[in-house]
């Protein structure tokens, strides 16, 4: 039985399902869901690229930021938790940089939390015994260090809503094909916009990532001291709910093409939506996380000294300089405005992190 048939069966047995539940099945259903299948997802043979596919420099710059955090935290045991590590390329590059600091590396506990068995298999083949794997943040309760993710939150299943006379939620039904039906939204969905101070105009359609709210709350409650670093594409509320985004931000990626129909290629295409960084900041603050900074990827990398890195490379390895320069150009010029970095902190009094040395126009 195909994943489409399994979803149709569920609808026939229980009635229309929320779009959030449809998306969760499409992405995470055992064996058949997009992230749990054996197909290539990332890179040339897959459906999309991430920054770590472009160049190892991204991981090295992220390593610099983690090293600075370790200094701030007193240069003692330092736990790094990577949530959703893809095929392990970013982990490899971050670890490659951190190994250069022998004292840090001796104090390092690098953990990966990965839901996908297929991804975890690739990570273990690439990383071996350099890291350990955990099933959830619960296993790391009371940790000191940094929890980070790269393009994780955009893949959480989202609720879709449409503002009519009242807020309505999108459900998925099946009658000779998948189709949408609208039902009155729950109090939790209405409260999401109320807490953020957002009033949607009539006819406006968008997504609500309640899983992201739950995620940041859990991290805030389990982290004893340290940082939360989130890299993803998205915007603060002030930009996310502009009139020209009245159709929402949901996107599907299939073999490096983009479409807006999640009912096609079910289980074979990625489904994502833009992250609301204001929501992460808001519910993070309510869970004990203070805002440390918010920036776009271009300014973040510049603050961490990517230009200095290239200059040293030019002096010592001219052969690879041009290749690396073009890779950095992609990170800064092509991806630099799209991707944002949010860093939150807990139980820390610290000066500004290097990644926020140069500020972009984006404000939470």
Identify the CATH architecture.
Answer: 3-Layer(aba) Sandwich
Biggest sheet, open or closed, and with what strands and sense? 8 strands, mixed
Q: In percent terms, what proportion of residues is strand?
A: 15-25%
Look at the structure and give the mean pLDDT: 92
Estimated helix fraction: 25-40%
> Any low-confidence stretches, pLDDT <50, length ≥5?
none
- The general outline is globular
Radius of gyration: 21 Å
**CATH overall fold name:** Rossmann fold
CATH top level label: Alpha Beta
Q: Helix tally?
A: 14
Q: How many structural domains can be distinguished in the coordinates?
A: 1
Number of strands: 16
Structural class assignment: alpha/beta
From N to C, what is the helix and strand string? HEHHHEHHEHEEEEEHEHEHEEEEHEHHHE
Distance between the termini: 46 Å
Written overview of the protein:
- By secondary structure, the protein is of the alpha/beta class.
- It has a single domain (15-158, 209-248, 272-356), classed as Rossmann fold (3-Layer(aba) Sandwich).
- The protein has 14 helices and 16 strands.
- It has helices at residues 3-14, 19-28, 51-54, 57-72, 89-98, 102-106, 117-127, 187-196, 210-222, 237-240, 277-285, 297-303, 306-316, 318-334; strands at 17-18, 78-83, 108-113, 132-134, 143-150, 159-163, 167-174, 178-184, 205-208, 223-235, 251-254, 257-259, 270-272, 275-276, 290-296, 339-346.
- The strands form 3 sheets. Strands 2, 3, 4, 5, 10, 14, 15 and 16 form an 8-stranded mixed sheet that branches.
- A hairpin with a 3-residue loop joins strand 6 (159-163) and strand 7.
- The radius of gyration is 21 Å and the shape is globular.
- 41% of the residues are buried.
């Amino acid at each position: 039985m195909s994943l489409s048939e399994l979803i149709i069966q569920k609808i026939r047995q229980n009635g229309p399902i929320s779009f959030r539940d449809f998306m969760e099945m499409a992405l995470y259903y055992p064996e058949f869901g997009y992230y749990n299948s054996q197909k290539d997802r990332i890179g040339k043979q897959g459906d999309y690229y991430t920054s770590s596919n472009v160049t190892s420099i991204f991981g090295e710059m992220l390593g610099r930021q983690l090293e600075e955090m370790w200094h701030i935290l007193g240069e003692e045991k330092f736990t790094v938790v990577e949530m959703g590590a893809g095929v392990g390329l970013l982990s490899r590059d971050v670890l490659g940089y951190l190994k250069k600091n022998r004292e840090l590396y001796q104090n390092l506990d690098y953990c990966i939390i990965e839901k996908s068995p297929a991804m975890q298999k690739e990570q273990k083949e690439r990383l071996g015994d350099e890291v350990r794997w955990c099933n959830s943040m619960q296993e790391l309760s009371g940790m000191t260090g940094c929890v980070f993710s790269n393009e994780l939150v955009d893949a959480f299943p989202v609720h879709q809503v449409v503002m009519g006379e009242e807020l309505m939620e999108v459900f998925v039904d099946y009658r000779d094909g998948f189709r949408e039906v609208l039902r009155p939204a729950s109090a939790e969905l209405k409260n999401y916009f109320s807490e953020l101070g957002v009033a949607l105009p009539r006819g406006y359609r968008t997504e609500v990532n309640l899983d992201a709210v739950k995620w940041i709350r859990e991290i805030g409650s389990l982290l004893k001291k340290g940082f939360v670093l989130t890299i993803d594409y998205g915007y603060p509320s002030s930009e996310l709910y502009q009139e020209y985004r009245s159709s929402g931000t949901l996107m599907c990626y299939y073999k490096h093409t983009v479409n807006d129909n999640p009912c096609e290629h079910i289980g074979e295409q990625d489904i994502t939506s833009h992250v609301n960084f204001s929501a992460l900041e808001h519910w993070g603050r309510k869970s004990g996380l203070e805002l440390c900074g918010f920036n776009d990827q271009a300014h973040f990398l510049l603050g961490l000294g990517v230009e200095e890195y290239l200059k040293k490379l030019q002096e010592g390895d001219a052969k690879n300089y041009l290749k690396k320069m073009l890779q950095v150009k992609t990170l800064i010029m092509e991806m630099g405005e799209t991707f944002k970095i949010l860093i939150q902190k807990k139980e820390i009094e610290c000066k500004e992190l290097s990644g926020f040395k140069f500020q972009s126009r984006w404000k939470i």
